[in-house]
Amino acid sequence: MELYEKLDAEVFDLKIIYTWILANPKKLFYIKCADAKAFLKTVKKSVTVIEAAGGLVRNTPGHYLFIYRNDKWDLPKGKIEKDEKVKEAAVREVEEECGIKVSKLKEKICKTYHVYISRGEVVLKKTHWFNMESKGREKLKPQKEEGITDARWFEKHHIEPIIDNTFPSILDVLHKEKLATNKLMPQ
Questions:
Q1: Regarding predicted confidence, which is higher, 88 or 12?
Q2: CA-to-CA distance for 82 and 19, rounded, in angstroms?
Q3: Quick one: pLDDT at residue 186?
Q4: Is residue 75 within 8 Å of residue 118, measured between CB atoms?
């Protein structure tokens, strides 16, 4: 099996290609185009885009906060509410999903995109990620009504369980922060 498959940007339709992606989960693909920003803008016009925000939280002892939802390790994040600022949403979501107090909102890490199906419709979620701090080693309270079954602090050098069982977009955040160095490869 060829590892990467090139998709034609000229005829790319996310609503159609996403079905193929779901049917081929171990395959990777790429799109070669002259202007990546213009291409992404075109894709965004073809589907519903949901804006979200979240954070990579580090506590005083230097541990990182992760949540467990949908059988995967994840970072706390959620939809930005109407008239809410991105930074406010990021802090609110982390605090709601984990039951902690963010003591400091730091710099933006990156933004990621991922696709999923909601009510039978292909949705593109754009998530803004921020570095955050939390004092001490607060007791975590996972937000069960959001499907979060666990929330834990992990030492920097003990996050292999996360790297081995998370989403590609979360790996992007961890790579940006130099917490993960492995490459995403199909299993």
A1: 88
A2: 30
A3: 44
A4: no
Contact yes or no for 79/97 (Cβ under 8 A): no
Distance CA 89, CA 60 (A): 23
Distances, alpha carbon 130 to alpha carbons 25, 26, 85, 109, 174, in Å: 29, 30, 13, 5, 12
User: What average pLDDT is seen over the chain?
Assistant: 91
89-103 pLDDT, tens digit per residue, is 999 999 999 999 999
Locate 164 and state its tokens: 């081995």
Domains and CATH numbers, the chain: 4-46 (no CATH), 48-176 (3.90.79.10)
Answer yes or no: are the C-beta atoms of 122 and 47 closer than 8 Å.
Answer: yes
Tokens of 136: 């001490």
Using CA atoms, how far apart are residues 143 and 38, in angstroms rounded to an integer?
38
